[in-house]
Amino acid sequence: MAQTTVEGVEGVLAKVGQHLGHSDWVEITQEQVDMFAEATHDHQWIHVDVERAKRESPFGGPIAHGYLTLSLVSALSGQIIEATGFRMGVNYGADKIRFMSPVPVGARVRASATLDEAKQFEGGVQMNLGITMEIEDQSKPAMVASILFRRYL
């Protein structure tokens, strides 16, 4: 269940500037990283070669792809905000994405979201969520991003 529920366009607009909550913590596994590498054809050794990453990488072991971290935003943001009164919603894009820290395999991450902006358009509303992907027990986030979602009436 989402931490914040809003009803319709007016409910969305009323939350602009507010922190909406946090998702649950999610562990990043080597299996996830390997499956992401298969799906994206990105088999760089710092992600998929565990022994080499332990020996040669500056991170001490394999790390998640930055885009794997980004791809979790859709699922994790659903734990944070639920917008009711709409027939559908879509991911609309991103205005800014920065990968601030590597996510070691085995680490846990969670999303934190703020509704930075909302714009009504004919037939719905566009939400700009400020998303921070936190790494458990680390002060520097894995990622900060400005993610756009649209909800249609």
TrEMBL record:
Signal peptide: none annotated. It comes from the Bacteria. Residues 15-125 form the MaoC-like domain. InterPro entries: HotDog_dom_sf, MaoC-like_dom, NodN-like. Belongs to the enoyl-CoA hydratase/isomerase family. This is Acyl dehydratase. The lineage of its organism: Bacteria, Bacillati, Actinomycetota, Actinomycetes, Geodermatophilales.
